[in-house]
Amino acid sequence: MLKLLRKIVTEVRAETDLEAVLKLIVCRIQEGMNTQVCSIYLKDTTNKRLTLRASEGLHQKSIGSSLSQHEGVVGLVANRAEPVNTDDIEQHPSYCFIPGTGEERFHSFLGVPIIYQREVLGGLVIQQFDGRRYKETEESFLVTVSAQLAGIIIQAEATAAVTVTKLQKKSQVDRCFIGVSGAAGIAIGKMVVVSESAELDSVAERQIEDTYSEVRSFEAALEHVRSDIRSASARLAQRLGEQEQALFDVYLKMLEDNSLAGEIVKRIMQGNWAQWALSSVVIEHCRQFDMMDDPYLKERASDIRDLGKRILAYLQEQKGPQSIDLAEGSVLVAEELSPAMLGEIHTDKLLGLISVKGSGNSHAAILARSMGIPTVMGAVELPYKKLSGRTVVLDGHSGRLYLNPSTELLQIYQAQLEQEQQQEAELDVLKMLPAQTQDGVTMPLWVNTGLIADVQRALDKGAEGIGLYRTEIPFMIRNVFPSEHEQTQIYAKQLEAFAPRPVTMRTLDIGGDKSLNYFPIEEENPFLGWRGVRVTLDHPEIFLVQIRAMLRANDSYGNLRIMLPMVTSINEVTESIALIDQAVLELREEGLKVERPPVGVMIEVPAALYLTRVFARHVDFISVGSNDLTQYLLAVDRNNPRVAPLYSSYHPAVLQALKYIVKEAQREHVDVSICGELAADPAGALLLMAMGYNYLSMNANNLPKVKSVIRNCNFSEARVMLKKVLRLNDIEEIKTEMQSSLNAMGLGSLIKEGSFK
Ligand code: PEP
Ligand code: MG
Fold this sequence. Notes:
The chain has 757 residues and is of the alpha/beta class. It has an eight-stranded mixed beta sheet.
């Protein structure tokens, strides 16, 4: 059964056309389960009727007939979201057959719901002449198949909905795809899809005009690979037996014109770019081999994939890094946006960003927010490979994407875009004014930086200090560790730009979703693994170089503060401080007059939360990394869009924790701030101010909005709101209370309804 399941899933995945997908499913199940009928009913999104979409065994002319969602046993399966298994369907109280299907001949019936993310899409049914109850193993098999196929059906449906066919000019207007908000704002532009380097599965479809030059590029890449194989074969000639040597010849044969290469050229000549022609042919071949029972032939799939990747790497090399070819008004789409990718992009032509993977608190989203580029993350159903050049409306507030937008929708979003641009310009006047409440409480607003451009943006918005400089970002856009001299220059830029205002540099925080391609960390659970200070304490040589570079850079400015990420235990704090002292001594020996700068820790882990007071006795300041703290408190991966709705800073446990940290830090008279994304949320900023945080650090783009809200509120009223909120136990109640308190404070127009994440 498991073999059959794998076979069906592999074969079905290869199809993108919805009707073909459904047909294939029913054929394979009918045949594999040795039953007389297999049918799929899907719910119509508009009238909710259950339509027979594909069947093997029922009369084909009845495909397209439908039942109301409450009719028949199929309706019962869908309504109850449960299987129904009976040996005599005609005796079932819900029995109602669709005339013309011919189903009255079949007595046994087993129907299971098709469910995707809690939503019932329809039902998968098998039927049989003789009256027998299907076995339990058959029932659980059908449930398993259905669970696996639901995602594939959704993908195929999405593709069908956005595919412009020759017959139908536009198949569905305003087709909406739901993701997660990455960075607020609206973008209307043309999609440019980027592929991950040498990843066959992420190559996007793209049409080209000049097929001959594309074939030439492909042949050049092919020749490179042939020559690589020949040299490898020659190099290893002495060490390999005859049989192994023959493998190289097999490889070379595969690349001949009448084999893989011929098929690829044919696809290019049909107007496709070489990268997609290559990936689609290779993937198809791999699937065929994968489905074979013979283990030797099965293995050949990995040979073909390997060859394909090699050719792809050469093709991508010809096109330059990442093949990012941005025209004016582009919206960049990637399977997984990475911080490194963002570090390399020229943003002047970029209107928006879309990532199929990742979530609102992934580091790519955080960077997008600091760049002020509207972004949608986790658009998992978007058939992105087919969308190059298509117009998209990107709503970064709600995390929605609209394809095939109607004129009306375009007009609505265009008007909203202009209104937001105007509001942003109006906030510019606040730059030189303090973030002071109506009743005279001042809340210093600092910024988080990482990219070079962040410094200027931060100064333009009137930031009063840097509360978090993510030093790993410059590490991520290089191919080797930057030297001490290079790091000194990088850090000096941040210190100089803000002197005499404080600049808080966080020591290298890699691991989790931040990787260095020259220092790969491969782990099953990266967020629970080797991250932050755990890495740098294991590699004092990396840590010491970084600290020395910070201290050298600080020599002329004196505004440095050093901050340690991901600390969990006190020994991590004391050992890090000892290393910082060692770096100070080393520089003194060189003749520099350096003192140990203020050192602080981030509270990002529940264990650290309970040790706030202990840490406070050893350090000069505390800063809460609420992004990670929320992830670890709620056990919700900040990178996983599937659980994104569960990630909320307004969870009562998160708010209680944030309040607790302030109280504990105050008991030791140590400054406490916050540099997680909650500080950049205007409503969140008010709660944090009311809790007693000494300053807030956020992305520069949100700073004016936060300042405007603070200037328009009373501290005493914010305290009352906090008190009410801390008494509540449910996120939704908290959000409702927040909204009504804000409305009562006259801030309803500044803070949009539903903006609390
Ligand atoms: C945090 O975790 O809140 C934080 C500021 O650090 P980062 O987002 O870089 O993990
Ligand atoms: Mg963190």
